[in-house]
Amino acid sequence: MKRLAIVGAGDLGIQIAHHACATGQWKLAGFFDDTRQPGSQVADAQVLGGVKDVAAAHAGGAFDALIVAIGYRHLAARSRIFEQFEGRIPFATVIHPSAIVDPTCRIGPGSVIYPGCVLDMGVTIDANVVVNVGCVIAHDSHVGRGCFLSPGVRLAGFVRIAPASTLGIGTVVIDNVTVGSGIRTGAGAVVIASIADPGLYVGVPAIHKRASA
Questions:
Q1: CA distance linking residue 141 with residue 174, whole number of Å
Q2: pLDDT on residue 213
Q3: Could you give the count of Cα atoms lying within 13 Å of 146 in the half-sphere of its Cβ?
Q4: pLDDT tens digits, residue range 48-76?
Q5: CATH no. for 2-85
Q6: What is the pLDDT of residues 86-137, one digit of tens each?
Q7: Which residues is 118 bridged to in the sheet?
Q8: Taking residues 164-187, what's their average pLDDT?
């Protein structure tokens, strides 16, 4: 098994570690987290240092691949850390064994597919994406890099989700719709037409509630 290191030792990092180990392909090497003391214990593994220590630890053979486990509230930091090490350190791709992923799908480095997800024919998931529990993505849809899909998201066919967007729990997007970059949907939102302006969208159908901060 390869050794996985995770940036972020919070709840998301612990979840991803759990699901990665369930694949039988990864074992947890440890965490990197600027808010925790090096050497402290998290989920049966140690904090190996902060973000500044990642490159040296990899060069020293401490781990084989990396995942960024920073959640939807800090997408900019998530993307920044991923881009800091992209091309320098290998990123893992984690697909839970209970997920159904068609062989024609393409899943980028640093992405995590949680339990119970279904990815249909021709789906593309770009780099550094979280597809949380029970998401269903229909044929020929495309999720851009750095996105975060909360539990139970449903995307119909030919949907395009632009980079750095967050779909809230239970969001539904009908077919042939584009969701622009920097958009966040609230719980249970139903997107029935393409949306482009960054900010929060809520309701059925989803409407623009407020601009991004």
A1: 11
A2: 53
A3: 21
A4: 999 999 999 999 999 999 999 999 999 99
A5: 3.40.50.720
A6: 999 999 999 999 999 999 999 999 999 999 999 999 999 999 999 999 999 9
A7: 100, 136
A8: 97
Provide CB contacts within 8 A for 65, sequence distance 6+.
Answer: 2, 3, 4, 5, 26, 89, 90, 91, 92
**Whole-number Å distance between alpha carbons of 107 and 112:** 9
Structural domain boundaries of the chain?
Answer: 2-85, 94-210
φ/ψ of residue 119, rounded to 5: -115, 115
The single residue listed with the structure tokens 């369930």 is 22
pTM of the model: 0.95
The Cα angle at residue 35 between residues 29 and 39, in degrees rounded to 5: 40
The Cα 138–Cα 117 span in angstroms is: 11
Q: Are strands 41-42 and 45-49 parallel, antiparallel or unpaired?
A: antiparallel
Name 186's Cβ contacts closer than 8 Å, sequence gap at least 6: 168, 171, 200, 201, 202, 203, 206, 209
User: How far is residue 82's CA from residue 129's CA, in Å, rounded to a whole number?
Assistant: 11
Classified by CATH at the fold level, domain 94-210 comes out as UDP N-Acetylglucosamine Acyltransferase; domain 1 (2.160.10)
